Amino acid sequence: MKCMICKTGETVKGNSVVTLNRDGMVIVFKSVPAEICNNCGEVYVNNDITKNLLDTAEEVSKSGVQVDIREFKAA
Length: 75
Ligand SMILES: [Zn+2]
Description:
By secondary structure, the chain is of the alpha+beta class. It has a single domain, classed as Ubiquitin-like (UB roll) (Roll). Helices cover 21% and strands 43% of the residues. Strands 1, 2, 3 and 4 form a 4-stranded mixed sheet that branches. The chain starts with 10 loop residues before the first strand and ends with a strand. Residues 3, 5-6, 9, 37, 39-40, 42 line the site of zinc ion (ZN). Zinc ion is lined by residues 3, 5-6, 9, 37, 39-40, 42.
């Protein structure tokens, strides 16, 4: 699809790193499936995956971990 940020690039499928901050906790997901703009590098993650990331972050924050780095796994 056409990039919504720079409006000139095209997005291509790839894997990205997504970092979430939550109440001082940092969680990093590696290998997240995403569409990435070939011009400006903007990353687009679909809604299902975003929800998965947020749910995981919620669970991790309950465990009291401050920093967590993990491979993304689809539910
Ligand atoms: Zn772009």
